[in-house]
């Protein structure tokens, strides 16, 4: 018996009964913000703890995450331009300054604070980024513009259920879930506590920004007492990702069950 933590990414809502039997907590991410019991459940993408990075600057790593989030929000083939990144990084640093000076949970920034700070910047690019964020701040997809109201450290077994997010929020929800797990693993690292992270339908987390974040998880978590495991039956989708080679190289253990003939050829 250990006191290790177990976190599950559940894109298809298949783990509820198991987690319930293990006296765990299910966090249901949905456009309405309502959990399994109908009560509000919010995860704040701006959450940060002082152990967020292994170096002296957790803010630099958090800024990188918010750049990835903005890249998803803005979309398009071009993505963020160098000026966009400079403006976002400046706004992020301004927004977090009061919290880092006095780490009170009541001062934790939310997306709306970033939106307001962007509108204060003189560059026209800042107004364009703010306009793209508006949908997620005051528009119909504002579920991630709240402070977290979930005590993530109250249960050893934690499950993020993402089936209800829908197409518009799915990739953003996956990225925010990854960041929430990152926060938990880094907090556990300072307690010398192991965290097991199981990701079902892993092929969903190998595209774009979530794919890049998955590589960082595979590279860093094992140094922090984190043990990530990806589960998938879609070998074609898995091997189509340019990130998977990096992840395989940083995996100590690969277990393959029965494969279809076409998948066997691709694997070979």
If you had to describe this structure to a student in words, what would you say it looks like?
This protein has helices at residues 16-21, 58-74, 82-101, 111-120, 124-137, 166-190, 208-220, 235-240, 244-249, 261-267; strands at 5-10, 25-28, 157-161, 195-199, 226-230. α2 (58-74) crosses α3 (82-101), α2 runs antiparallel to α6 (166-190) and α3 packs across α4 (111-120). The chain has a five-stranded parallel beta sheet with strand order 2-3-1-4-5. The mean pLDDT is 91. The protein is of the alpha/beta class and 268 residues long. The N and C termini lie far apart (39 Å). The chain contains ten helices and five strands, in the order βαβααααβαβαβααα.
Specify the structural class.
alpha/beta
Distance between the termini: 39 Å
> What share of residues are in beta strands?
5-15%
Counting DSSP E segments of at least 2 residues, the number of strands comes to 5
How do the helices and strands line up, and which of them pair or pack?
Blueprint: E1 5-10, H1 16-21, E2 25-28, H2 58-74, H3 82-101, H4 111-120, H5 124-137, E3 157-161, H6 166-190, E4 195-199, H7 208-220, E5 226-230, H8 235-240, H9 244-249, H10 261-267
Parallel strand pairs: 1-3, 1-4, 2-3, 4-5
What's the gist of this structure?
With 268 residues, this protein is of the alpha/beta class. It is built from ten helices and five strands, in the order βαβααααβαβαβααα. The protein is globular and about 60 Å long.
């Amino acid at each position: 018996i250990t006191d290790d933590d177990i976190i599950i990414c559940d894109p298809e809502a298949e783990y509820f009964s198991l987690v319930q039997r293990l006296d765990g907590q299910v966090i249901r991410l949905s456009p309405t913000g309502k959990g399994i019991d109908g009560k509000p459940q919010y995860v704040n993408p701006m959450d940060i703890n002082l152990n967020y990075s292994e170096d002296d600057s957790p803010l630099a790593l958090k800024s990188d995450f918010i750049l990835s989030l903005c890249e998803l929000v803005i979309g398009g083939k071009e993505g963020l331009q160098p000026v966009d990144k400079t403006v976002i990084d400046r706004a992020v640093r301004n927004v977090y300054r009061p919290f880092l000076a006095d780490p009170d949970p009541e001062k934790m920034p939310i997306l709306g604070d970033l939106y307001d700070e962007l509108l204060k910047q003189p560059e026209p690019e800042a107004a364009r980024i703010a306009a793209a964020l508006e949908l997620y701040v005051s528009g119909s997809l504002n579920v991630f513009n709240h402070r977290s109201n979930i005590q993530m450290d109250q249960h050893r077994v934690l499950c993020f259920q993402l089936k209800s997010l829908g197409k518009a929020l799915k990739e953003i929800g996956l990225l925010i879930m990854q960041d929430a797990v990152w926060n938990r693993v880094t907090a556990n690292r300072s307690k010398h506590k192991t965290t097991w992270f199981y990701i079902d339908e892993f092929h969903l987390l190998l595209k774009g920004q979530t794919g890049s974040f998955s590589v960082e998880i595979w590279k860093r978590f094992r140094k922090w007492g984190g043990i990530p495991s990806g589960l998938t039956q879609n070998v074609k989708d898995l091997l189509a990702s340019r990130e998977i080679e990096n992840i395989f190289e940083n995996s100590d253990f690969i277990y393959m069950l029965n494969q279809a003939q076409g998948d066997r050829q691709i694997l070979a």
